[in-house]
Amino acid sequence: MEHVVYIALGSNLGDRLGYLRKAYQFLKKITESSIAASPIYESEPVGPSDNDYLNAVVRISTSLTPRDLLLKCKSFELDVGRNQSAPRWSNRVIDLDIIFYDDLHLDEEKLKIPHPSYQDRLFVLLPLLNLNPEGRDPVSGKFIEEMITCAPKIRITETNLSWDADA
Q1: Which listed residue (16, 97, 121, 137) is catalytic?
Q2: Cβ neighbourhood burial of 117 (10 Å; 0-12, 13-18, 19+)
Q3: Is 97 a catalytic residue?
Q4: What is the pTM of this model?
Q5: Is 92 known to be catalytic?
Q6: Cα–Cα distance for residue pair 76/56, rounded to 1 Å
Q7: Which domains does the chain have, with CATH numbers?
Q8: CA–CA gap between residue 160 and residue 103 (Å, rounded)
Q9: Looking at 16, 21, 59, 92, which residue is catalytic?
Q10: N or C: which end of the chain has fewer CB within 10 A?
Q11: Is 121 a catalytic residue?
């Protein structure tokens, strides 16, 4: 059975666009039937990070379980050089977060779906709205558009950056 999953991507170290493109290619490989990507946004960091982030959301279809998907995402992060022992909110080459997995509500120690506090992050909500304009939070039932109006304001802009390395 295929599941529709939304994954947030972020990078603020090194070749930020290159890391997002690598993450997109990785997700494309684990997708059974369809993949879609939001525009790429640039946003100020939340927390003590030094550099602006590039952010996006990708929608995939997968038969992987939530736990298997999480393990694959964390393995990919390590493969491209993410320091898993770095403090929370620190700079990172890549970050992949499962935002939605169908309408699943999961609250385990190592995996929470929907992702905790995504509703307060414009760098997730704005790209998510691009891919899912009628989307709702599976727990609260709030529309994504409604969550955007309530989220803390940060500096964020949609870029003209392309997912295609040849563009």
Answers
A1: 97
A2: exposed
A3: yes
A4: 0.94
A5: yes
A6: 17
A7: 3-158 (3.30.70.560)
A8: 31
A9: 92
A10: N
A11: no
